[in-house]
Amino acid sequence: MPDPRPEPAAIRVTTRREVLPSYPTLPVHQALAHRFGKEQVYLLESAAGPDRDRKYQFVGFGELLSLSVTDSTVSVDGEPSLREALLRRIAPLLDATDGELRLRARRDLWRVLRELHALFDAEGSPNRFRFGFLGYFGYDTVRYIEDLPYVIDERPPLPDVHLVLHQGCVVIDLDSGEGELLLHESDHWRAFDPAEVTALLARAEAEHPVPPAGPVPASAASDDTDPDAYRRDVERALKHIAVGDIYQVQLGHELTIRSSVDPIDVYQRMRTHNASPYMYLAHVRGQTVLGASPELFVRVEDRTVTMRPIAGTVPRDGDDEAAGARLLADEKEIAEHIMLVDLCRNDIGRICRADTLEVPDELIVERYSHVLHLVSTVVGEAEPDRDTYDIIAALFPAGTMTGTPKIRAMEIIEQIERSRRGLYAGAIGVIDVGGYTNLALCIRTLFHEDGMYRTRASAGVVADSVPEREWTETLAKMSAAYWAVTGKGLL
């Protein structure tokens, strides 16, 4: 029988827009953090990389509502009226057990996210970020899509999924050089004074200049594995490949660093040493997330779905042309890249019209701050009945972080790796209620809490992999994050 209860009314939101100069984003972040509290502010910026990946900078502030899901347990925080309204909408999807709210079925996660989306009657956009959420999708989001075994008993300290609505956002358009302040207003929360906020932003660079990074304090590091253990892990994976179980698998490990260095200093050093197209400084449940990711997970603009898989890397040694030629001549790197592009195309094909699938760029050598990457672009137009959450679920997690076939590769990762990935290999970015979505692949990332930094990297194992080389590759990938904390290299 149909549910006789009426659909809850959506909360009406209007957005005030103020034109701004193109302010530098880190002083803006610091000024807003000083005013509202660092946990209330996030920064997403592009510091380097291809122009197609460098469109906007975002500094969001003033949390209004957050939804977290951890191992099927749902938590909602924020403005009381918003919290109550969301809980009413999602109540049919939850059970109350021992004082906790839990999803009745894991796949109901996506229905819960749609209810959060539908809670607001606001002017969104299909092609830029206007009103919506900062979203975090940890690696274990896949467990709300596929049935996978739990072998690693540890549970990560971060939620599997975390979406946050902020009251204000500073947006810098990198193409036009223009800035904009978005202030969202509703009867359900107290409005910010636009004059106060614009005055604060105008003073940001003078009052919160980016200081030179101070001396790096002493640190101590430990790893959840070692070279010999990792070699055995790769050999196990090679046996799976030899019998045709998989073609490729990404195996990684986690490094923990104890240090008193301030996360802002670490982020500044990341910006300087490893400038990337997807950089982020944000807070999730008491942890600071600092990232310099080179790779897009997915972008949705005007219903066009784009993925840009990266597989294949060489250092920039002063002669980019020669280094790029070596990369394009590396049969292992080329074969691995093509395999992952095919996987990416298959994933996009699940939610896009078949006649719109294209690979406009394949095996392109792109320049980043310290390396050259092999990159391809895969695009398609989403089917009319598919929404943002259909798209994320169809593509998640990125094949460049699992291997192929994807599900079997993830089963093997669970059997071999020693600690849960958490947000690593997941995605972070913005989701607009109008359909625009821009999520970065969460790699080259640090997680900070109580004087401890964690970072992680993996390497792709294929039939002709040499275990020692794969170990070295993981260290090379972690090196920039490690240097940002310690001032030392790993290689």
UniProtKB/TrEMBL annotation:
Residues 208-227 are annotated as: Disordered. This is Anthranilate synthase component I family protein. Signal peptide: none annotated. Residues 228-477 form the Chorismate-utilising enzyme C-terminal domain. InterPro entries: ADC_synthase, Anth_synth_I-like, Anth_synth_I_N, Chorismate_C. Residues 33-174 form the Anthranilate synthase component I N-terminal domain. Gene3D superfamilies: Anthranilate synthase (3.60.120.10).
